[in-house]
């Protein structure tokens, strides 16, 4: 039986020899860190085999074997090492081939996940790349839709600015040149100019609000308010417009439901919906604003008598500058930003907004989470 002391010495020399080879392999890997995976795998395989072989060689030299036994041991070690390096190279080639398949899939346009089986890590990377490409495609579609909306917005705003500006210029020149001098006409011109200025100021305010929403800089100052208070304020604020057009405006809300919202911003969104409903409802029509609770969410519906919205236009109602068919064209002008602003404000509160045809017109619905 070999004494324990001798075994410890053998283990020490074998470990020292293997450690020297391992250190050399690590240094070589550091120098080749920017090379291909195949080269690095080859270095790992060779270093592993040489570390084992070096330990065995050292042991054969220390054990004072005769020439025959030493030659046999070294032959066995060399043969085993050669086979081990071959297996290592084969496995490395398979891994490199799988990596090449993934690279070719990434270079393809459009990207498709590889159909061949991959190692677990590369398969996980392929799934993550697939998800990333889906997110990029969705972001690209949103960017294209937003760019189209911006172009449409510029066209609409240019048209809506040009008309009142031309009218104000004509009236200002008439006043300046003395073409009109009677008191009644001068007063009417001044009143008309003031109305157009207020309208343009509202358009500029809407553009500023929409830019904050799109830029993600809309600041909400939340406070606890009642849903019934929001409905009452929206109805009271649009009552003069409804009365002037001959539209009946009704508002009601169930028991007070507390909300943690920015009352000013959310009130603006709700007023936009009510104003939109009044403008598109014919005289003697009715607009109803109803607040309540549905599936644990605060719910406000604004129903009008506009005659309905074409089904193809429903998904685009909240797009920037969308006006749709003649039945939805605002009688009072505007840049078509009210509904887009309403959607941005509601979504900033963590809520949802939608529209559907119902009865003699359509119904806009806002859903908001109640206060915690």
From TrEMBL:
Location relative to the cell: Cell membrane
Keywords: Kinase, Membrane, Phosphoprotein, Transferase, Transmembrane, Transmembrane helix, Two-component regulatory system
Domain Histidine kinase, residue spans: 156-372
Keyword ATP-binding: no
A GO term, aspect molecular function: phosphoprotein phosphatase activity
UniProt superkingdom: Bacteria
Catalytic activity: ATP + protein L-histidine = ADP + protein N-phospho-L-histidine
Ranges that cross the membrane: 12-32, 39-65, 71-91
EC number: 2.7.13.3
Protein name: Sensor-like histidine kinase SenX3
GO annotation terms (biological process): cellular response to phosphate starvation
Cellular component, GO annotation: plasma membrane
InterPro entries named among the record's database cross-references: BphY/WalK/GraS-like, HATPase_C_sf, HATPase_dom, His_kinase_dom, HisK_dim/P_dom, HisK_dim/P_sf, Sig_transdc_His_kin-like_C
Pfam families xref list: HATPase_c (PF02518), HisKA (PF00512)
